[in-house]
Amino acid sequence: MTRSAVWVPLFDDLADPRVAVDLAVAAEEAGWDGFFVWDHLRWHEPVVSAGDPWVALAAIAAATDRIRLGTLVTAVARRRPAKLARETAALDLLSGGRVSLGVGLGSDRFGGEFSLFGEESDERARAAMLDEALEILRGAWSGEPVHHRGDHYAVDGVRFLPRPTQGTIPIWVAGFPGKARPRQRAARNDGFFPVNLADPDQLAEEVAAVTALRDDPPAPYDVIAAVAPGADPSPYADAGATWCVTDTEAEGLTLDTVRGLIADGPFS
Question: Cα–Cα distance between 7 and 142 in angstroms, integer?
Fold first, then answer.
């Protein structure tokens, strides 16, 4: 079964968390299965406003009952993993166990989100930070004491309670097609979001590559594909997608456009 989700940036018309809540409620009423948001501090012009994803998601969690929610994707290297562990667990509790966490390296080229804030801009370093942070997150959600000493982070015997409602939170790893490390990272986690896909055939290649790397290929696993609103999702479902999310552009996206795609209903 392939599920359908609205996936939008919280920019300009959508930067107000009250607007995001209204959209998520409308999506749930229209039969969509999920509502996911971009996680960015800023974007290049003509985008001028950016909303906070975690405040918006908390409000969405409180206003909805059924839809899955989360970020696609969070650049984990610019988040403190202990803080992210607390935020995600709290959001999962608030939503009754409906959170998925999309993770990736992020990029400086769209809004200078690393260089303008003095954050790590080297991709290899951010990859190492991401892997360490994911280890900490998994440990934190377990409720057991976390002992971690790495090149970038340290946690000395701290328990992170309360635990998420789900016990743990699904981690969906984003990465460009054909890249070995994102594939390996995705295989160790709960889902894969290959971004900027050329076509469903490329998705099938990515699914096959990640499946070959997984320890338990038959176990439940999510594959996320971004599909243009109104497009036929069935080729992506046939290629292995378990989620199809709306592929929208940041520039020029209006509130009316998002309201329209939500009202049109889920991918069928």
Answer: 29
Q: Which residues of the chain have pLDDT under 70?
A: 268
Q: CA nearest 33: which of 100, 112, 106, 119?
A: 100
- pLDDT tens for 139-149 read 999 999 999 99
Tokens (6 digits) for 26 = 């409308």
Read off the tokens for 138.
């998994």
pLDDT of residue 1: 84
Residue 68 sits at φ, ψ, to 5 deg, of -80, 150
How far is 267 from 243, CA to CA, in rounded Å? 10
Q: For residue 146, give the H/E element and its range.
A: strand 146-149
Position 234 scores a pLDDT of 96
Q: What does the pLDDT look like over 30-76, one tens digit per residue?
A: 999 999 999 999 999 999 999 999 999 999 999 999 999 999 999 99
Name the token pair of 41: 């501090």
Q: Is 174 helix (H, G, I), strand (E, B) or coil?
A: strand
φ/ψ of residue 114, rounded to 5: -100, -55
- Beta partners for residue 148, in sequence order: 155
Tokens of 113: 């989100």
Q: How far apart are CA 163 and CA 45, in angstroms?
A: 40
Residue 185: DSSP 8-state: H
The terminus-to-terminus CA distance of the chain in angstroms comes to 11
